[in-house]
Amino acid sequence: ARRIPFLPVGNWTNLIVRGGGYRGVLISLTGLHGLEIRDSGEGEVRVEAEAGVALSELVTLSMHEGLTGIEFCAGIPGSVGGAVRMNAGACGSEIKDVVITVRLLADPAEGIRTVTRDSLIFGYRNLDLPAETIIIGAAFRLKRGEQEKIAGRIREILSLRKEKHPLEFRNAGSIFKNPREIPAGRLIESAGLKGLRIGDAEVSAKHGNFIVNRGQASAAEVLSLIDLVQKRVFEATGHSLETEVRIIGE
Fold first, then answer.
1. Of the N and C termini of the chain, which has fewer Cβ atoms inside 10 Å?
2. In the annotation, is 146 catalytic?
3. What is the architecture, at CATH level 2, of domain 170-248?
């Protein structure tokens, strides 16, 4: 029998689909929205979230319950599954710092497996898993804290994001991974590329590591702009920018 390719998707963030579409089956995980809190004792709490739970919902729950550890996810779009897959992070913290276990479906014959943090290989904005492995959910270790302090930190992070990120325009999030030495946005700015435009796709004037849609930008325009930015940054700085956004399709 012919094998049909498939790909799990969450909230469609950090994802660009080429104009020719994806030849295969896209599996939406948004129906997986279970969320449960279990007290582990000694001030620690285990929060179990299915892949389709929005990060915003997880952050809001932690705030209402007075749980600390996940504040850095405030304002990050997307779902728990995508955040684990991309090892999402901000403010010096990453998902790998709080995850305990991940539930996976790698082989339908084997069924759903629960794997521990220690057996997973997390990298910068990456979890080393085959593309077709489906993340069903994850458990996180959080701690009891002061609700007011937690809420204040979340407000602070959201305010910072609003100030620095072009949230007023449609965008696919951070386009490039940050090189170790210097943030991608700074490299793009130093190369004089803010405001660079192809069609309706534009390098944000507010933050160089965002490409915004100024109207009806096509995937082809966005991808052409990504290529041009990579070329110009390398010419100006010698740094090779690697995409953080996931690109699929044909």
1. N
2. no
3. Alpha-Beta Complex (3.90)
